[in-house]
UniProtKB/TrEMBL annotation:
Keywords: Oxidoreductase. PANTHER family: FLAVIN REDUCTASE, FMN REDUCTASE (NADH) RUTF. GO terms for molecular function: FMN binding; riboflavin reductase (NADPH) activity. This is Flavin reductase. It comes from Pseudomonas azotoformans. GO terms for biological process: pyrimidine nucleobase catabolic process.
Amino acid sequence: MVDVSSFRNAMAMLGGAVTVITTDGVAGRFGFTASAVCSVTDSPPTLLVCMNRSSHSNEHFKRNGAVCVNILCGDHQEMSGAFANRTLTMDERFAVTQWTTLESGAPVMIDALVNFDCRIAQVHEVGSHSIFYCEIQTIRQGNADEGLVYFNRAYHRLGEASKAC
């Protein structure tokens, strides 16, 4: 079996879009930064989101049953840091930018690159993480032309200016 350190070092070379995952409902308003998000199927349109089972927010996301996957723009590195900072309260995290809601009731970041407003259709527990299968209810496109990705343990901006010739 591969050791954890080798696995983490190898996975650092797999770039991923930086997102802020949010929820609100009977269990309250919560959010966290994630790059472990990907599409599952387009019929029905479904994403998966991975969240550490030891996270204080984990059970709250399950109880609310609603999430918004907010894909961050190139200039949202500070936002990513705020939602990854365990010393900040949820109110402090959400105070960093403006929010609205769509169909699910989960907080939707107004200036995100894209918002996927979802309901949690299924949850699977695998090792240290919960995998949320999120059926998309509404998609909202922003106006930015640059995305934020995490690769090799660093943030990078991708967009028109960063395309190769």
